[in-house]
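Pilot study result, target chain (238 residues):
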Amino acid sequence: MKISIIIPILNESEIIGKLISILIQSSFSRKNIQEILIVDGGSTDRSKDIIDTLASQETTTIKFIPSQKGRAKQLNTGARIAQGNILYFLHADSYPPKGYDDDIIQEVKKGNNAGCFRMKFNSNHWWLRFLGWLTQFHSKRCRGGDQSQFITTSLFKQIDGYDESFIVYEDNDLVERLFAIQQFVIIPKNVITSARRYKEIGIWRLQYYFLNIHMRKWMGASPEKLYRYYKKKVGSIN
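Predicted structure:
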């Protein structure tokens, strides 16, 4: 089995090089990694230069893929190009645990064709530690893209991938569909993800906005209305 790692970005020159290096160094075996696909939504910084430089230096296949902006569109673009039989979707500011590739492959061998890791923020704030603690529970309410997402290529195609009508909430929508067919497992290791958005906006304010988005979705708000609310309150997606 081979894993295609798919990372959507927009102007992530400050962190994308570090992530790629960690992905390679933390893998159980480089042979497990088919490729690392960086799917760009229109960056205007040095992201492409950094990725191209790393691609020329590493033996692991690293590709810069231009795409229309929007996380669901970028993730689907990467999935269409991917050659691996397992897709691993990862945010640019999230770092998987050591041996993540073997953990994923072992779960797929057991018949668990989709799932995620638990998560911890790189912050000691008690509320963010609490949010991380919740990710151990097998509930779709405790899921999010920051935990990363693995899924076999065949299952991804079977459920028609990410719904591109969602500019926000695309990760949650995919998880809900996977829970509906009882195809979701939580690997008991932690992805470490950045709390940078919480620091920028404020922990309580951002948490209120996220809860509001979930409530609006539960009450039937359209993907477009969810995005308008997010853009007004939080700002850009990537």
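One observation from the pilot: Strands lie at 3-9, 33-40, 62-66, 86-89, 94-95, 114-121, 149-152, 185-193. A full batch analysis is planned for the follow-on phase.
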